Amino acid sequence: MAATARMGAAPPRRPDPHAPLSLRARVFIRRGKLDGLLAAGADPSWDPELGLRARQISAPDRRRALAESIERAVWEAHRPPRWSCAAPVDRRAVRRATPELSALALELTLEAAPAAQGVALATQLLRDPDSPLYAPGAGEALRVGAVVARRALHAAVTSCSGSE
Known about the structure:
By secondary structure, the chain is mostly helical. The longest helix has 19 residues, at 21-39. It is elongated. It has a domain at 45-77 and 89-158. The chain has helices spanning 2-7, 21-39, 48-57, 60-78, 91-96, 98-110, 116-127, 139-153.
């Protein structure tokens, strides 16, 4: 432990190891709904479940995995088509949105404290089956979605009390 402290590296930790088990269980069960609320701009301070989910999805390891998945979708769109069991991406839309998707992936890994809304929007782009990433003919929507998610990474969330 002393060697770790001297090197300035912290040991890997779960997003909130002190959250009660009941809270973690509720967040696990409701994660899809909570992600949707965060993507819509809900303030994580409004509710303990939202707060925990925001910390979970904004953890550096989760953001790194999300960025790698976005980069993999871009890579797949630029290589020759092949048979796969993976959900097919709209290759033309991904190729058109490559600069925006690549910038989003980069900022997911570089941003020290991203807004949960931006991370949730990026997650929806990748995981929602109705996302323009997978919907044929939704090319401009994918580019715009990546731009919106990227901008939301930097947005400051204001609380109901008005303090920032």
